[in-house]
């Protein structure tokens, strides 16, 4: 897997215009892969805390669309696709930490797996702890074992999906619309977990590109 990029990756105005307009899928794919590899390689080689913190909080300042423009339109089982999904996990958490932490706790009660330990959230997991988990997972992309960070994201998604499903079951008879919305959300989280798990396995096989 080509992870080493020693010189900056440059793109012309026309290339960036193609990304924004989505006119050239091959170019979008190339830019996504080259930027993801270049960024990850440089930061992991010299993980300056200030730089890492800016990357972790990037979407707080610039919004998720700034990341989506580069990485959201490639395959799930690629490096840019995996990075996009971890940023998406953090955004999901930050949008409603109170609700997400409740689903997470409900999920840990419902399923007896090692996911709670893998996710690594402090217990009991309230809004502050779930926000800290989001940042810790993203930090792991740049300063730790990337496969572990992806596995932690996947474990979080599985537990939260289980919690959302449990709440949906409770609401099914009295609040059908709410139950349907939570079921859809649980499905999306389950799919996200599967994508991150596969990406982690590919990284360990040196095949995530």
UniProtKB/TrEMBL annotation:
It comes from the Bacteria. Keywords: DNA-directed RNA polymerase, Transcription. GO terms for cellular component: DNA-directed RNA polymerase complex. This is DNA-directed RNA polymerase subunit beta. It comes from Curtobacterium caseinilyticum.
